[in-house]
Amino acid sequence: MRRPRQAEPPPVFRPGGRQRLILDVDTGIDDSLALLYAAGHPDVDLVAVTTCAGNVGVDQVVHNTLGVLELAGATHVEVARGAAGPIARRLEITPETHGPTGTGYAVLEPSGSVSDRTAIEVLVDEARRTPGEITLVTAGPLTNLAAAVLAEPDLPLLLRDVFVMGGTFSQAGNVHPRVEWNIHVDPEAARTVLHQWSAAGKRGAVPITMMGLDVTETSVIRAEDLLAVAHATGLPAAGGTDVEVMTTALGSPVLDFVRDSLRFYFEFHELHDGFYGAHVHDPFVVGAAVDPSLIASLSTVVDVELGGQWTTGETIADWRGHFDKPVNAYVATAGDGAEFIRRLRSVLADLVRVGTS
């Protein structure tokens, strides 16, 4: 019998200072919060945002992304169009979760335009231009990253880190019993990425950090958090029931957008999960990329199942070394979601202050 792999501490990143991030998104509701968090965080240099189909179609994703960055005062950030669908499957979207446009009840009318570069060009070009400096955070299917690493096999060595919102390792899935949405949409892409990182591990590539539902579902936002942001910034927001808070203007374009988008998400979670609030998966992953002390992780080999009726898209962590491959992942096993929500509130408050000054 093989011995379990030895637990390793979370990887060590920059001790301080600004971080250079690229976000790869399929902008729905929690992606929007991830964009706001990255754009408003004082220690983040948001280099670019790449887009792919997932929660909604890619054109709507581009529209949403431009609109959210405009709200955040980050119109200088390049937005690149990426994959319009998975590698080998038809596209599935999720209007029941994120609304028909991906941002719940919120409406965005951006005036900016998409980049002349494709998402793949952005990922490869920026990694080559500043090797060892870019941290990539993926908040949607891994279609763009799979294409980028096939176009540039050295990408795992050129990127500083990669943080993936995807998979589940000890908790129920949100599509099938052990399958998470982002991996479900394009499991072939996820397998391609993980295999390429395993191959590059022989040459010293830093493993991907995977944050699955086990960890991201510890990050829960509620109506009281939005009310706290409003009060912290001096907005004359009234209290009341959670539903009343979520249906009353909060006095800031950023906060009103967050309220309107999250209200749809809250209603979805109330119907399906029994609480009026929401798991905010994607921004928590950005938060951990900025400060990895928010999570604990163990190193292993991760692969993706492709052939089961109910298990296609399942992320398999090889804790006992059966695969006999180089480590390709740090799997997050615990996370401080409550602390992240406190930090998210702080960043949102800063954005509100800038927008009302």
Features:
alpha/beta, eight-stranded mixed sheet, single chain, 357 residues, 40% helix, 14 helices
Short description:
The chain is of the alpha/beta class and 357 residues long. The chain has helices at 29-40, 58-71, 95-98, 119-129, 143-151, 155-158, 181-185, 187-201, 213-216, 223-232, 242-245, 253-273, 281-290, 337-356; strands at 19-25, 44-51, 78-80, 134-138, 161-165, 208-211, 220-221, 278-279, 295-300, 302-304, 315-317, 329-335.
Q: Cα distance, first to last residue?
A: 64 Å
Count helical runs.
14
Q: What ranges have pLDDT less than 50 throughout 5 or more consecutive residues? A: none
Q: Which structural category fits the helices and strands?
A: alpha/beta
Q: What is the N-to-C succession of helices and strands?
A: EHEHEHHEHHEHHEHEHHHEHEEEEH
Q: What's the count of strands?
A: 12
How would you describe this protein?
Helix 1 (29-40) runs antiparallel to helix 12 (253-273), helix 1 runs parallel beside helix 13 (281-290) and helix 13 packs across helix 14 (337-356). 56% of the residues are buried. This protein starts with 18 loop residues before the first strand and ends with a helix. It has an 8-stranded mixed sheet with strand order 3-2-1-4-5-6-12-9, sandwiched between helices. A two-stranded antiparallel ribbon has the order 7-8. The mean pLDDT is 93. It contains 14 helices and 12 strands. By secondary structure, the protein is an alpha/beta fold. The chain has helices at residues 29-40, 58-71, 95-98, 119-129, 143-151, 155-158, 181-185, 187-201, 213-216, 223-232, 242-245, 253-273, 281-290, 337-356; strands at 19-25, 44-51, 78-80, 134-138, 161-165, 208-211, 220-221, 278-279, 295-300, 302-304, 315-317, 329-335.
